[in-house]
């Protein structure tokens, strides 16, 4: 109950005016009575002719005063705190962060309800009861604020939008969404912002200024417990591979956690640990067998499923390691270094054509760290065909340059290029190649550069490993002097080392990761391979692309799990990059609610100077959680009723 | 013009059986039916006394004389008529209440016109007296004696009585003391005086008391009959009223409320008690009647009940 305009009180002067008129009224009806004798005595006793006594028992006067008072009150624009029929514009901010996917109350045995479902119900309740007629704007939270509907009047579409809310496991844009809500309601008076959240809120919600009332509706859910795989990695060590997982829990009681380690889908090992409330434990899996993708999984069912799995990939060098066997070629060595690869040079003794001493192979040890690429410049030394070296050569990409005996003179004719990744940026324009090796081509080989009918560069795959051979000695050409040379070397190295793709590592879901997109890739997509993403059947997501091609910065899908980024080139060749999308660790904490969140409603009230009257009214409203309902009509009706009653009094008689 | 206008004929027949209940022996000039305080010539034996020369020889008791030899004279009670004086207040205040039409019997609610009711009462009392061979004198007064009917006697003069009463118009301001203060207003002979009035008197109670004392002093057995209309007993007024006095024509502005009406009833009650007190101090009867009553209720009920009329 409040007063809209105290100025209306001036009309209250009408009440004394009415009283004065009644006091000054001199109209008495002449009534003849036999005698005054008794009346005089009565009057003397009562002194009833004092002015105010005339007013005392006068129904008409009271009715008129009542009517005047009602009218004056109506002019003061009173409003009552009627049930909220809703603001004209209601901005609903739905916290769709990952923590909303947690279930509540599974501690009692049966799985609780998802908080998101509870929130949806709350929002629908709110739409049904509080925001009946207003326009609805629904904001969700993704990496950016997600505007689902804007100023929607259609209830069914609003409800549809509410149903479409999905949890976002990445780093949710909490304050940004609030900020957007604030911006959407700026310069509005009949609007409100309602925030639905579980209270887990990152950031400084109270730093967002609001000009309209803000309500915070907490999804009341019992805090469940959560076992989270905080860290997981596999490293190569002296005793084979070692996997390390860090398990944390948030919950009131100590819990035992069993962590299963899978390698390419097969259960490898299980470790367990007791976890104190809020504590963490580090589990180490030793002598882990070889696998491409490792998965660690918490066996226990908990309330928040998004962080129960973590992936690790076989350790692969970030930078390719190249073993360069050469008798000395500065151009090649520099060009290989320019690719960013770690180049280990093994200087072969003797000049070209010299045979190393017999038994020398035995003395040449295989490198401890297997290289990613072996580059043999010139004739391959004999030890490469023996024992360990042979094995290494078989499972390592090899690039040979020159090294043959018989040569064919091609006289510097223009080379002809086939389409091949190595040739991507090469033209061999102005390159003089004097002679080519005359060698029988191996089975795997296909020429990618040829001069005349003679192949100059051959490429192919042997035992699944790429092979590349330059059938000319660099010394016989001016190719190393050409500007294209480092580029061709770079392309050759990346083709030889990167053919199987890479893993992109672990990233927060929804974040943007840089992906080496091949220049000839025509299509790319994210495919869910494992984990929650597979369980939830996340559909394939096409990669972001623009007119120039596929963006190198791609957004990870928002649902945690293992994904493959598949690129296809024109030939249909596919390159796969594994990436794990992990849930935002903040969401799994199930910590105490952000206290500042509760303060934003009050902050909105406090902006008295800036927001002025609107905020004042808003403050009243949000405190009462009700809205003003003008009483003018009601009062006017009452006044009319009083006037009707006056009519009745006129008809009946003049006084009580 | 018949008496039916004032009194219905069946009513007069009933009245003939009544007599006035005067409490005292009366002294009149003519012989009447009423026992006088004197010894006289009636058949009612009173006493013996010794004969004195000059006594009526017819009253000499020869029987006693023969037995005792002493001369005794028999004395008898004297029977004389009663002098009844009727005073009817014809002031303006009496002309109130009910429909002024005399034909109307008057509903109980609105009541009869006070003056008419008083006239009927006076006529009834006068008729009773005439039928009992009393002498009846009638006066109408307001601020003085307005009209006077010579003393009537005998049943045959009832018509004159009725006509006189019927023809009396309402007069001016009423004042009992002024009227009685006029020379010759008070009856010369001892007797009974009935005063029919509303007793709305502007003069103080002391003046009324004096006038009544004078009447009592003149050997009158006085009966005060206050006639009020139902509107005066229970006024049903409301609103802002300027109450105009019917006699003085002066106004009084009163906002009538329930409280005021209640106080009015209290005042009425007090006033009647005052009158009753004044009356009883002087050995005077006081009867309050409402014009809403029928004559039968008034005569056979109230008046007979107070012993003023006997069957």
Write a brief caption for the model.
With 656 residues, chain A is of the alpha+beta class. Chain A is 25% helix and 32% strand.
Descriptors for this entry?
heterodimer; A: about 650 residues; alpha+beta; Rossmann fold; 5-stranded mixed beta sheet; 15 helices; about 30% strand; B: alpha/beta; 2 domains; 6-stranded mixed beta sheet; 12 strands; about 30% helix
Query: H/E element string of chain B?
Result: HEEHEEHEEHHEHEHEEHEHE
- What is the architecture of the largest domain in chain B at the second tier of CATH? 3-Layer(aba) Sandwich
Count of individual helical segments of chain A:
15
Q: Give the spatial strand order of the biggest sheet of chain A.
A: 17-16-18-19-25-24-23-21
For the record, the count of structural domains of chain A works out to 5
Largest sheet features of chain B? 6 strands, mixed
CATH fold-level label of the largest domain in chain A: Rossmann fold
Strand order of the largest sheet of chain B: 6-5-4-7-8-11
What would the principal axes of the Cα set say about the shape of chain B? elongated
- The computed structural class of chain B is alpha/beta
């Amino acid at each position: 109950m409040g007063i809209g305009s105290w100025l209306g009180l001036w009309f209250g002067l009408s009440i004394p005016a009415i009283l004065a008129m009644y006091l000054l009224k001199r109209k008495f009806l002449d009534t003849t009575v036999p005698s005054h004798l008794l009346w005089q005595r009565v009057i003397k006793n009562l002194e009833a002719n004092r002015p105010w006594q005339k007013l005392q028992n006068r129904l008409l006067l009271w009715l008129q005063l009542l009517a005047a008072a009602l009218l004056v009150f109506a002019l003061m624009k009173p409003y009552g705190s009627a049930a909220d029929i809703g603001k004209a514009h209601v901005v609903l901010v739905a916290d769709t962060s990952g923590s909303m996917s947690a279930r509540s109350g599974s501690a009692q045995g049966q799985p609780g309800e998802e908080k998101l479902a509870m929130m949806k119900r709350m929002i629908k309740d709110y739409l049904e009861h509080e925001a009946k007629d207003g326009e609805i704007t629904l904001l969700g939270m993704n990496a950016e604020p997600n505007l689902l509907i804007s100023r929607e009047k259609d209830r069914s579409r609003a409800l549809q939008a509410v149903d479409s809310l999905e949890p976002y496991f990445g780093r949710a844009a909490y304050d940004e969404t609030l900020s957007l809500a604030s911006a959407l309601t700026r310069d509005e008076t009949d609007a409100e912002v309602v925030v639905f959240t579980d209270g887990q809120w990152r950031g400084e919600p109270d730093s967002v200024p609001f000009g309209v009332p803000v309500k915070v509706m907490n999804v009341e859910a019992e805090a469940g417990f959560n076992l989270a795989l905080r860290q997981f990695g596999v490293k190569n060590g002296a005793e084979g591979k070692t996997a390390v997982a860090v398990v944390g829990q948030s919950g009131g009681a100590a819990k035992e956690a069993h962590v299963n380690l899978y390698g390419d889908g097969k259960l490898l090992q299980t470790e367990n640990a007791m976890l104190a409330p809020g504590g963490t434990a580090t589990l180490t899996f030793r002598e882990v067998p070889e696998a491409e993708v490792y998965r660690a999984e918490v066996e226990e069912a908990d309330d928040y499923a998004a962080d129960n799995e973590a992936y690790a990939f076989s350790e692969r060098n970030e930078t390719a390691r190249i073993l360069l066997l050469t008798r000395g070629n500065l151009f090649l060595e520099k060009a290989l270094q320019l690719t960013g690869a770690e180049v280990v040079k093994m200087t072969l003794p003797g000049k070209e054509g010299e045979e190393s001493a017999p038994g020398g192979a035995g003395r040449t040890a295989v490198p401890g760290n297997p290289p990613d690429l072996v580059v043999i410049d010139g004739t391959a030394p004999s030890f490469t065909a023996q024992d360990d070296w042979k094995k290494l050569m078989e499972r390592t990409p090899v690039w040979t340059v020159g090294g043959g005996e018989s040569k064919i003179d091609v006289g510097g004719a223009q080379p002809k290029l086939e389409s091949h990744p190595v040739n991507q940026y090469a033209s061999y324009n102005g390159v003089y190649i004097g002679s080519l090796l005359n060698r029988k081509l191996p089975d795997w080989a296909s020429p990618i550069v040829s001069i005349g009918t003679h192949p100059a560069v051959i490429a192919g795959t042997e035992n699944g490993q790429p092979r590349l051979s330059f059938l000319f000695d660099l010394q016989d050409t001016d190719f190393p002097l050409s500007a294209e040379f480092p580029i061709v070397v770079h392309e050759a190295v990346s083709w030889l080392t990167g053919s199987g793709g890479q893993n992109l590592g672990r990233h927060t879901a929804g974040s943007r990761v840089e992906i080496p997109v091949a220049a000839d890739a025509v299509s790319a997509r994210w495919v869910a391979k494992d984990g929650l993403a597979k369980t939830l059947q996340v559909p394939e997501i096409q990669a972001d692309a623009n007119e120039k091609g596929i963006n190198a910065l791609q957004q990870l899908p928002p649902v945690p799990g293992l994904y493959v980024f598949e690129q296809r080139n024109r030939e249909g060749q596919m390159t796969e990059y594994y990436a794990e999308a992990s849930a935002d660790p903040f969401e799994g904490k199930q910590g105490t609610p952000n206290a500042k969140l509760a303060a934003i409603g009050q902050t909105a009230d406090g902006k008295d100077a800036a927001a002025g009257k609107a905020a004042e009214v808003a403050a009243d409203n949000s405190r009462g959680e009700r809205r003003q309902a003008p009483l003018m009509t009601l009062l006017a009706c009452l006044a009319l009723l009083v006037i009707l009653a006056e009519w009745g009094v006129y008809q009946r008689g003049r006084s009580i | 013009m018949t008496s039916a206008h004032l009194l219905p004929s069946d009513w007069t027949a009933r009245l003939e059986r009544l007599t006035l209940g005067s409490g005292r022996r009366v002294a009149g000039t003519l012989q009447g039916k009423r026992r006088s305080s004197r010894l006289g010539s009636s058949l009612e034996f009173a006493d013996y006394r010794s004969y004195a020369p000059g006594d009526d020889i017819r009253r000499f008791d020869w029987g006693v004389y023969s037995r005792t030899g002493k001369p005794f004279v028999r004395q008898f009670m004297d029977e004389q008529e009663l002098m009844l004086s009727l005073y009817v207040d014809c002031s303006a205040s009496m002309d109130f209440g009910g429909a002024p039409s005399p034909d109307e019997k008057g509903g109980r609610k609105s009541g009869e016109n006070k003056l008419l009711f008083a006239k009927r009462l006076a006529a009834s009392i006068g008729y009773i007296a005439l039928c009992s061979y009393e002498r009846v004198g009638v006066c109408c007064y307001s601020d003085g004696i307005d009209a006077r009917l010579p003393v009537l006697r005998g049943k045959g003069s009832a018509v004159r009585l009725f006509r006189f009463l019927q023809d009396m118009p309402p007069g001016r301001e009423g004042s009992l003391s002024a009227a009685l203060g006029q020379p010759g207003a008070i009856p010369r002979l001892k007797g009974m005086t009935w005063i029919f009035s509303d007793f709305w008197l502007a003069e103080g109670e002391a003046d009324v008391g004096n006038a009544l004392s004078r009447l009592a002093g003149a050997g009158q057995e006085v009966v005060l009959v206050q006639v009020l209309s139902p509107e005066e007993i229970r006024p049903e007024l409301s609103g802002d009223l300027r109450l105009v006095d019917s006699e003085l024509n002066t106004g009084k502005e009163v906002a009538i409320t329930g409280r005021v009406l209640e106080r009015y009833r209290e005042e009425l009650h007090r006033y009647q008690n005052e009158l009753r007190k004044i009356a009883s101090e002087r050995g005077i009867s006081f009867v309050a009647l409402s014009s809403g009553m029928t004559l039968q209720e008034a005569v056979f009920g109230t008046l007979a009940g107070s012993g003023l009329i006997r069957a």
